[in-house]
Design brief:
The complex is a heterotrimer. By secondary structure, chain A is an alpha/beta fold. Helices cover 39% and strands 24% of the residues of chain A. By secondary structure, chain C is of the alpha+beta class. Chain C contains 9 helices and 8 strands. In chain C, strands 1-2-3-8 form a 4-stranded antiparallel β-sheet. In chain C, strands 4-5 form a two-stranded antiparallel ribbon. Chain C has a two-stranded antiparallel ribbon with strand order 6-7. Classes of the chains: A alpha/beta, B mainly alpha, C alpha+beta. Chains in contact: A-B, A-C, B-C. Chains B and C meet through helix 1, helix 2, helix 11, helix 12 and helix 15 of B and helix 1, helix 3, helix 4, helix 7 and helix 8 of C.
C-alpha cells in the first residue's frame, strides 16, 4: 500500500453515514453526512448535546466512530496509525478552552509541533511563528506565558499555533464560547481574516453574525443527525425544515 | 511594631495569660538548655570523631580522593548556580540578581567562615573548607557575569556535568583505574548517608514515573501490575523490606550470588521510594487537564512526544512539592540502615558512643546529628520552593 | 449492547504494527511476558537455593520452643513456649503501641493544627516551629534520643521525678489509676521499688513519645490543611452571627474540615503503624523485633518474612477499612 499523500481534488472532508456510540450505550451520532470543499467555510450550529462537537472531533480522530466512512484530504480515516498521523498533520484544531501549554512561552507553544512533527529547523519555524503572531495581532506577547494573557489573546495564540503547522483544514470547536463578550469580537475578526485567505474551515459556533457574513454553508445538527444544510442567505431566512425553524426561533 | 506585638500576643485576657505562660516556659527551657550546652556538655566527642562522622572507616591515605570529589561537586554547583543566575526565565529580563539569591550567598559565606572554627577542625582541613567555599562563590560570580556569552549548544551540555560528576564520584569512591580499591564495607558516615540517599533518589525517579504512568494506563495488565507493586510496597514497613533485602535477596539470585550489603540496601531503598514517588507523580498527572493531551495529539504529536513535552513537564511541576517531600523522607530513611548493621551517620554515632572514652555523651552526639539532618532537609525544602518559583510562569518576579 | 469495532479502511486492515486496535494488546503482552519471566526466574532461584540449604517452606518450626524471653508482654510468654506464641506476643505489643500512639498523635496533632489558627501570635509561631523542626529530623534519631538521652537518664527510686499522679523513673512510668476494689490508687514507693496500678516500661514510653510527637507534627499539617480548605466566608459568617473563635471552630469549621482531613489521616495512621516497627531500636519487643530474633535463631527467612508482611498488610487494611467507614460518615453529613 502506498504512503498516503494529500490529494489535489477539491473535496477536503468527506463523511458518509457516520455513527458513534459511547461506551455507556449512548448513540451520539446517528448517521451523519458532510462534504467540505477546499476553501469553504462551513458553520455547524445546533442545540447543546446535538453531537456537533463530537462530529468534528471525528475528523482528526480525537473521537472514534463505529460505522460509516470519513476521508480527510483523500486519506481514509481508519485504524491505520500512519493514516491517522498523516491526517492530524493536515488538520488543525482550535478548542473552546484554548488548551495552550502553560509551561511553554507563547513562541514555544507555536514552534513545538513543527519542530518535532515536521522536523523543521527551529530558527525557520521561529521566524514563521513571529509572522503568524503578527498576523493575529499579538506579536509583542511572543515571550510571555499563556497565564499572563487575556482569554481573547490566548485564543488568538491558539489559532496561530494551529496555523503554524500549515494545516489544510482548520476545525474550530466553539472557539468563542469561553470568552468574555468584549473579547469575542477580536477572535471572530481573526477568523474572518483567515476565511478571506481561502483556508478551509469547519466552525462549530453559536455566533449567528459570523455565520451570516463569513460562512459559505450553514449546517444544523440536532440529536446526532444533520438536519439541514444551506447557504446562510436561505438558512436564516427561509429554512426548509421545521426543526431548523424551531431552532432559529430560539436563537434569533 | 509594639502595637503589632500587643495585638498578636495580648488581644484578649485569655491570650494574655497564655502568652505570659508560654513565654516564661520558653525562657526557662532556653536558659536551661544554654546552661547545659555551655557548661556541662562536652563537645570534644564531635571534634575528636569528625572524620568518622564524615566518612566512616574510609582509609586515611585514600581520603584525598574524597576531597577531589568534593571539589568537583563544589565546582559543578558553583557553575550551575552562576549559569542559572545568568539565564533568568524569558519573561524576567533584567531581574539578574534577585534578593533571595543574594541572601543564600550571604548565609553560605557566614557558615563557611564560622563552622570550621566552631567545630575546631584541624587547621589544614579548615583551610581546605575555606578554599572550597571560595571556589563556589568565585565560580558563581564568574558564571553569572559571563554566562550570557556562552553559545547555546554549549549551554545545553552543561546539565550533563552532574551525571558525569556522579559517575566520576563513584569511581573515585570505590577505586579502580589505577587507584586502590576501597570496598563498600569501609564506606561510612555522612559519605554513606549521602551516597545511599542520592543513589535511591536518582534511580527511584524514572521508576516512579513509569509506575505512575502504568497506574493510569488504560491497558488493564499494566495498571494491575503497577497497582500490585505499589500497594505491596506501601503496605510494608521499610525495616522489613531492608530485612528482606539482606536475608532473602541472596536466595533470589542464581547460585547464591550475593551483592554487597550496601548495594542491597540501596536497591531496596530505590524500589521502596519508587512506589511512594509513583503516588506523588500520579496526583500530578491527574492535575493535567485532558485538553492538553487533545491539543498535543491534534497538533500531530505522537503519544510519547506528547508525554515528554506537554504532560510530564506539567505533571512534575504540580507534583514537585510532594516529590521533594519523598526525597526528604528518603534522606531520613537512610538512618534505618544502621539497624541492619551499616555504618551510616547514625550507625557511626552508635559506635562512637560505645567507645568507653565517650561513654554517656549521647545527648551531644544526637543533638549534633539532629541539627545536621535538619539543615540538610530544610535546605532541600528551600531549594524545592525556589525551583517551584522558577518553574511557575504565574509568579511575578520578586523584584 | 455490543459495540461494533471501528471500521476498517476501504482497502483492508493495516499491518498489525500500525493497527491501533492491535498495538495496545501487543504492548501488554510484551510487558506481561517480561513480568512473568522475571517472577519465574526469581521464584525458581528461590526454590532451588532454599532446597540446597535445606530450608524449604514449612510451618512446623512454629510449634517448637522459642528459647528466648521477651522483656515485656501482655500475652504470657517464656522461653519454653512455642515460637508462634512469641510472635503473637510481639503482635500484641505492636497493637498496644499503635493504638495508644494513634490516640495520642491525633490529640496532639489536632491541638497543634488548630493552634495554627489561634489569635495568639506566639501560639501560632510555636505550632509552626514544632512542625518544621520535627518533620526534618529522622524518626529513628528522635526515638533513640528519647530513649537514651531522656528516659534512660531518669533518676531511680526515691529520687525519681514525681508529678501529681505520675512518677517518672528509670524503671518505668507509674500512673495513678483504679486498683482492685475500684479504689483510686497513687504510685507508692515500697521497699525502694515503685508500685502503681498502671506501669509503662521505659522502652514503651520512649516509643510512644517518639511516635506521638513525630506523627503529631504530620497530623497537625493535615488538620491545618483541612481547616485552611474551609472558605474564609464561613469564618466571616460565623463572626457576623456573634460566635466566638472556639465555638466557630468546633461547630462550623471543623465539621467541614473533616471531609478533607479524614483521608489525610488515613495515610498518617498507616504511617504510624509501620513506624512502630522501629521499636527494635529502643528495645521494645514488638512484632518486628520478635520476628528478627526468631529469624536469627531459626534461619527461616521466607516464612518469617511472610508472617511479617501478612501482619502489617492486615493492620494497614484494618486501619484503611475503619478510616473509609469514617470517611463515609463524614461525607454523608453534606446532604
Amino acid at each position: 500500500m502506498t504512503v498516503p499523500v494529500a490529494s489535489t481534488s477539491s473535496v477536503m472532508i468527506e463523511a458518509r453515514a457516520v455513527e458513534k456510540w459511547y461506551p455507556n450505550g449512548f448513540h451520539a451520532l446517528k448517521g451523519c453526512d458532510l462534504e467540505v470543499r477546499r476553501g469553504e467555510v462551513v458553520v455547524i450550529m445546533g442545540p447543546s448535546g446535538s453531537g456537533k462537537s463530537t462530529f468534528i472531533r471525528t475528523f482528526n480522530a480525537l473521537e472514534d466512530f463505529q460505522k460509516g466512512q470519513i476521508t480527510v484530504d483523500g486519506i481514509a480515516l481508519s485504524n491505520d496509525l500512519r493514516n491517522i498521523d498523516a491526517i492530524r498533520r493536515e488538520v488543525g484544531m482550535v478548542f473552546q478552552q484554548f488548551n495552550l501549554f502553560p509551561h511553554l512561552s507563547v513562541i514555544d507553544n507555536l514552534t513545538l509541533a513543527p519542530v518535532l512533527v515536521r522536523k523543521r529547523p527551529k530558527a525557520e519555524v521561529s521566524e514563521q511563528a513571529r509572522a503568524l503572531l503578527e498576523r493575529v495581532g499579538i506579536a509583542e506577547q511572543a515571550d510571555k506565558f499563556p497565564g499572563q494573557l487575556s482569554g481573547g489573546q490566548q485564543q488568538r495564540v491558539a489559532i496561530a499555533r494551529a496555523l503554524c503547522m500549515e494545516p489544510r483544514i482548520l476545525l474550530f470547536d466553539e472557539p468563542t464560547s469561553a470568552l468574555d463578550p468584549e473579547m469575542v469580537r477580536e477572535v471572530l475578526e481573526v477568523m474572518q481574516n483567515l476565511a478571506a485567505d481561502d483556508i478551509t474551515m469547519v466552525v462549530v459556533t453559536h455566533e449567528v453574525k459570523f455565520a451570516r457574513h463569513v460562512a459559505h454553508r450553514v449546517v444544523l445538527m440536532t440529536d446526532g443527525v444533520v438536519v439541514e444544510e444551506a447557504p446562510p442567505e436561505t438558512f436564516f431566512t427561509t429554512p426548509a425544515h421545521e426543526r431548523t425553524r424551531r431552532f432559529l426561533d430560539q436563537i434569533l | 511594631m509594639l502595637r503589632k506585638l500587643r495585638h498578636e500576643l495580648f488581644s484578649t485576657p485569655g491570650d494574655g495569660v497564655l502568652s505570659l505562660g508560654l513565654l516564661s516556659l520558653l525562657v526557662l527551657a532556653l536558659v536551661g538548655f544554654l546552661r547545659w550546652a555551655f557548661h556541662q556538655a562536652e563537645w570534644a566527642v564531635i571534634q575528636a570523631n569528625s572524620t568518622l562522622f564524615a566518612v566512616g572507616r574510609y582509609p586515611l591515605d585514600q581520603q584525598w580522593r574524597l576531597w577531589l570529589l568534593t571539589t568537583l561537586l563544589v565546582g559543578a554547583a558553583g557553575l550551575s548556580w552562576g549559569l542559572l543566575r545568568a539565564h533568568p526565565r524569558s519573561d524576567r529580563e533584567g531581574v539578574l540578581w534577585p534578593r533571595n539569591d543574594r541572601v543564600a550567598a550571604a548565609v553560605l559565606v557566614v557558615l563557611a567562615l564560622w563552622l570550621p572554627f566552631a567545630l575546631r577542625l584541624h587547621p589544614g582541613i579548615q583551610a581546605r573548607w575555606w578554599g572550597l567555599a571560595a571556589l563556589l562563590l568565585a565560580l558563581r560570580w564568574l558564571a553569572g557575569r559571563h554566562g550570557r556569552q556562552l553559545p547555546s549548544k554549549l549551554l545545553r551540555l552543561v546539565p550533563l556535568i552532574w551525571p558525569a560528576t556522579y559517575i566520576i564520584g563513584m569511581v573515585l569512591i570505590s577505586g579502580g583505574l589505577g587507584m586502590a580499591k576501597v570496598p563498600p564495607s569501609e564506606w561510612g558516615g555522612l559519605l554513606l548517608t549521602l551516597l545511599a540517599a542520592s543513589f535511591a533518589i536518582l534511580l527511584c525517579f524514572p521508576l516512579g514515573v513509569l509506575l505512575a504512568l502504568g497506574r493510569r494506563s488504560e491497558l488493564p495488565l499494566l495498571r494491575w501490575a503497577s497497582v500490585v507493586y505499589i500497594e505491596f510496597i506501601r503496605g510494608a514497613p521499610l525495616i522489613t523490606l531492608l530485612f528482606l533485602g539482606q536475608n532473602i535477596l541472596g536466595f533470589l539470585l542464581p547460585g547464591g550470588l550475593a551483592p554487597e550489603r550496601i548495594w542491597r540496601a540501596a536497591w531496596v531503598l530505590t524500589f521502596f521510594a519508587a512506589a511512594y514517588l509513583a503516588e506523588a507523580v500520579r496526583s500530578g498527572l491527574a492535575a493535567v487537564p485532558a485538553g492538553q493531551v487533545e491539543a498535543a495529539r491534534s497538533l500531530g504529536l505522537s503519544y510519547p512526544q506528547a508525554l515528554q513535552q506537554v504532560i510530564l513537564p506539567q505533571a512534575l511541576r504540580v507534583a514537585l512539592p510532594s516529590m521533594v517531600g519523598q526525597f526528604i523522607s528518603l534522606l531520613q530513611d537512610t538512618t534505618l540502615l544502621s539497624l541492619i548493621g551499616l555504618l551510616e551517620l547514625l550507625g557511626v554515632a552508635r559506635t562512637v558512643m560505645a567507645n568507653p572514652e565517650f561513654l554517656g555523651k549521647n545527648a551531644e552526639v544526637y543533638l549534633t546529628l539532629a541539627v545536621l539532618f535538619w539543615c540538610c532537609c530544610a535546605a532541600l525544602g528551600l531549594g524545592s520552593r525556589a525551583l517551584e518559583r522558577r518553574l511557575d510562569p504565574q509568579t511575578i518576579p520578586s523584584r | 449492547m455490543v459495540l461494533p469495532s471501528p471500521p476498517s479502511a476501504p482497502d483492508g486492515a493495516p499491518p498489525w504494527w500500525r493497527d491501533r486496535r492491535v498495538v495496545p494488546w501487543v504492548v501488554q503482552a510484551v510487558v506481561g511476558l517480561v513480568v512473568l519471566f522475571l517472577i519465574a526466574f526469581l521464584l525458581g532461584n528461590l526454590v532451588r537455593n532454599l532446597t540446597a540449604a535445606g530450608l524449604l517452606l514449612t510451618w512446623r518450626w512454629l510449634s517448637q520452643p522459642a528459647g528466648f524471653d521477651l522483656a515485656e508482654t501482655i500475652v504470657p510468654f517464656d522461653a519454653g513456649m512455642p515460637y508462634w506464641r512469641g510472635l503473637l506476643a510481639g503482635l500484641a505489643n505492636t497493637l498496644r503501641a499503635v493504638v495508644c500512639g494513634l490516640v495520642g498523635a491525633t490529640l496532639l496533632g489536632t491541638l497543634a493544627g488548630m493552634a495554627a489558627f489561634s489569635s495568639n501570635g506566639l501560639l501560632r509561631g510555636l505550632a509552626r516551629i514544632y512542625v518544621e523542626v520535627i518533620r526534618n529530623i529522622p524518626l529513628l534519631l528522635q526515638l533513640v534520643f528519647w530513649y537514651f538521652v531522656v528516659f534512660l537518664a531518669l533518676p531511680n527510686g526515691a529520687a525519681a521525678l514525681q508529678l501529681p499522679g505520675v512518677v517518672l523513673a528509670k524503671s518505668g512510668l507509674y500512673l495513678a489509676g483504679l486498683a482492685e476494689g475500684l479504689r483510686w490508687q497513687l504510685p507508692q514507693l515500697v521497699n525502694g521499688v515503685w508500685q502503681a496500678p498502671l506501669r509503662l516500661s521505659v522502652e514503651f514510653a520512649a516509643l510512644l513519645t517518639g511516635l506521638i510527637i513525630y506523627s503529631g507534627a504530620f497530623i497537625a499539617e493535615v488538620v491545618r490543611g483541612g481547616i485552611a480548605a474551609v472558605p474564609k466566608g464561613q469564618w466571616e459568617a460565623a463572626a457576623s452571627l456573634g460566635l466566638g473563635w472556639f465555638t466557630t471552630l468546633k461547630q462550623v469549621v471543623l465539621p467541614q474540615a473533616l471531609r478533607v482531613i479524614v483521608p489525610g489521616l488515613n495515610t498518617q495512621y498507616i504511617s504510624l503503624a509501620k513506624n512502630s516497627s522501629l521499636a527494635v531500636a529502643v528495645g521494645f519487643s514488638d512484632l518486628y523485633s520478635v520476628a528478627e530474633t526468631t529469624l536469627n535463631q531459626t534461619g527461616r527467612a521466607v516464612e518469617v518474612y511472610l508472617i511479617l508482611l501478612g501482619a502489617y498488610l492486615g493492620l494497614d487494611l484494618l486501619i484503611s477499612a475503619l478510616m473509609n467507614g469514617l470517611n463515609r460518615l463524614v461525607q454523608i453529613r453534606e446532604r
